[in-house]
Design brief:
Blueprint: E1 2-6, E2 12-17, E3 38-40, H1 52-60, H2 63-89, H3 92-107, E4 108-111, E5 114-117, H4 123-130, H5 134-146, E6 150-153, E7 156-160
Antiparallel strand pairs: 1-2, 1-3, 4-5, 5-7, 6-7
Length: about 170
């Protein structure tokens, strides 16, 4: 699932991608960062819902599940902190490579010396995730391909496993 926000002029900014087993939602007492967030499926998906009361009962009776929930929340906060750091300190090429490394870590399939990101990914979707234009991302991707950091195929991206910024090795 792709989570995104819309600017006043309708531009999308991807704030997260959820994989199987991830949680998404709002409770009065805390948030998973979902205020004014839209959701789009990227592949066939099954969603389960529960009320706030059901969720609280579920967590109160299962401390191990509550700890997993807290870990998921903590991981999401760490990802946001890392994204803010990338936005502040790296150029678009560096941010693009970092994002692709994160996606490869999370959704990657090893393929020789590369890891294939296991879902279709367009330059526009990468731009939405980085808050950039498709054209600027296309330039950054071409540079990364030229230097051998990534390979691209139609709607597919592979990242070199031996890169220091990727945990895909």
């Amino acid at each position: 699932l792709r989570l995104y926000k819309l600017s006043e002029d309708g531009k999308q900014f991807t704030v997260g991608i959820l994989a199987t087993g991830n949680m998404f939602g709002e409770l009065e007492s805390f948030s998973l960062g979902t205020k004014r967030v839209y959701m789009e499926t990227m592949e066939p998906s099954m969603l389960c819902t529960m009320s706030e009361m059901q969720f609280e009962e579920l967590l109160s009776g299962r401390p191990k599940l509550a700890m997993k929930f807290m870990k998921a929340l903590s991981d999401r906060l760490s990802e946001r902190d890392e994204l803010l750091e990338q936005l502040a300190f790296k150029d678009l090429k560096g941010r693009t490579l970092h994002l692709l490394a994160l996606l490869a870590d999370r959704f990657g399939m090893p393929d020789g010396e590369y890891t294939t990101i296991d879902f279709q990914l367009t330059h526009q979707e990468v731009a939405n995730m980085l808050g950039a234009t498709r054209e600027a991302v296309s330039v950054a991707v071409r540079e990364l391909v030229k230097e051998g950091s990534i390979r691209t195929r139609r709607m597919s991206i592979q990242i070199k496993r031996s890169l220091p910024c990727s945990g895909t090795s």
